Amino acid sequence: MNVLRRLAPILAPLLALLIAAVVGDALILTFGQSPAAVYRLLVDGTLGNAYGIGQVIYKATTLACTGMAVALGLRAGLFNIGAEGQLAMGGFAAAVVGLLLPVGTPALLAVPVCLAGAALGGAAVGAVPGVLKARFGAHEVIVTIMLNFIVLAFLNWIVATRLHVPEQLHTPDIRAGAIGRLAGAFPAFHGSAANWTILVALAAAGFMAWHLFRTRQGYELRAVGLQPAAAESGGVHVGRVWLRTMTLAGAIAGLGGTNFVLGYKQYYEEGFAAGAGFIGIAVALVGRNHPVGVLLASLLFAVLSQGGLAVNAVVPKQMVDVLTAVVIIAVAVTVPEMQRLVRGAHGANR
Amino acid sequence: MRRLIILAAALFAIHVGLLLVRPAGAEVGATSGAVNVGVVFDLGGRGDKSFNDGAYAGAERAVRELGAHVRFVEPGEGSDREAGLRVLAAEGMDLVIGVGFIFSDDLTQLAREYPNTRFAGVDYAVPTDSKGQPLALPPNLAALKFREEEGSFLVGALAALVSRSKTLGFVGGMDFPLIHKFEAGYRAGVRAVCADCTVIAQYAGVTPEAFRNPGKGLELALSQYQSGVDVIFQASGSTGLGVFEAARRRGKLAIGVDADQYGEAPGFILTSMVKGVDAAVFRTIEQVKGGTFRGGVFQLGLAEQGVDYVYDEHNRALIPDSVRARVEALRQDVIAGRITVPSTR
Q1: SS3 of A35, please?
Q2: Does B115 lie in the same domain as B156?
Q3: A36 and B19 in contact by Cβ < 8 A?
Q4: Reported ipTM
Q5: Is A300:A292 a contact under the CB 8 Å cutoff?
Q6: pLDDT tens, B261-313?
Q7: Which of B21, B27, B79 to mutate to test binding with chain A, by most A CBs within 10 Å of its CB?
Q8: Cβ–Cβ contacts within 10 Å for residue B133, how many?
Q9: Are residue B98 and residue B173 in the same domain, yes or no?
Q10: Which range marks the domain in which residue B84 is found?
């Protein structure tokens, strides 16, 4: 029984994966293909060679950041659906800082400045729902969803009217602040987009773990998430915790934007990581809002995303989109945090 | 707890069972021998009734007529474009095609990395240096560009010739240089046959959203028809569906774009300015097969049949023979170089 109890935390995600696998089998069969062959193709194209692994690392980097942005919010009882906008603003801010820096700024200076810009950009977007919730009680779900539209439309407008290169929808190349590819140190990764931004994501995970479990503020955050009223009576300023959490979540999502902007293309492009913010919700849920879990879950969804390309020759790409959605739905019904969140929402409706 | 474990075990058993199923006819892997072509679509992907579907049609024709083996990839997000091209190039495809201007950077880079693979970009935007001079392309890269202004010129003349109010409308999608080409050609076409006609040109917005906003298209078109316009040329993606709806409601005429859009509002579509993406893709595959492929920038205009307007049994009733003759004469003038159509406003 002891072994079983230790198994409990991973049982829910495992169940979700199995449900997805069975649905995937059925879908593949309807396309007249053999499930084993398609799954092998998927694994070969992602983890079967260094290039595929590099692509998975690249995609996981962005997803880990948005996943943490959602997970941090959920720990404080906030459903942050705004990672999409926070990510885009972070990437855009990094590009603007990189464009403003003079050519030849040493990387040791330029990269941290660009990263700070990204974190600030994301934090600014994250802070808005934080302030509105703390000050006026506006529900963060509504505010973050709507803010996504506002932020993305604003960035599209700026890029389309002011900052694009001719006939394209991206900004000029940044002058300084580029982050090197992993291929520079490990030639096997040649061609893949994987870059050293992965270290930023790992550092963010380390910071999140430390903040949540080793600091007083993190304790307050978790207390508010479990029971805001009790935390309030315990002397915690709930509004302040909400604001702090959303700002921090926005900053982490914003850092995720540097993966494309500083590490891959060296410019901001309209829709560069469309969907990463929403997949971040799934990453947080599958990762059970724990930094380590989020990192592992981001790898899972990165494999699915890259695998979609690998199996594209035999089954439509939408099959992998459906698989991703099934994982999310399965997680939603099996993961206790999610069930608590749904109950909490009912409670708030009284 | 125990029930959950039993459930997990049951699911696992079903999964393993299904893994063993091998349907007849299942086939994985590429064929060798025939000309191998990889096509990576734009993010919009198949079903846009425009250049993605055009590229698909061209590739399918190559499958039927040339026995080509074609693989399609639909990217999901930004980095998937390069990944899709790279996977195809690494597999040893003879030709890799990127559909849409957004592939320009990725194609240039990969063409340098894989000098033995041929690449083609539909609507490829030629990069320029800081002084605005075009940069040289890798020799294994063909940029398939279209002179949309020449096709727009002909439909502009056609619109002016059938118009009674001498007021013509234009609804563009996103207000940026690619769409300005359509407007410039259209205006020039109107002016070529009718000096005292006026053109009202409006755009649905300044972001890519402007190509996906039928409501805005309806609004703009209704106000143009209200102010006396009787023919509107739309170059605005699915925003144009709103323009067609307005034409239907007001009983006026509209002109489609990219593909033959007669079916969107039968009886109210005067013609469509068609872009021969399918023919360009097919011809490129044919060249690769025949060994005559070469890189460079290819401007496909009226002379190359890269652009044209639709004239068939559906819209014949809307276009008098005299009008048709006049427009065809203009076509010959453009092809012979007697008329140069502007591509900027």
Answers
A1: helix
A2: no
A3: yes
A4: 0.82
A5: no
A6: 999 999 999 999 999 999 999 999 999 999 999 999 999 999 988 999 999 99
A7: B79
A8: 7
A9: no
A10: 36-146
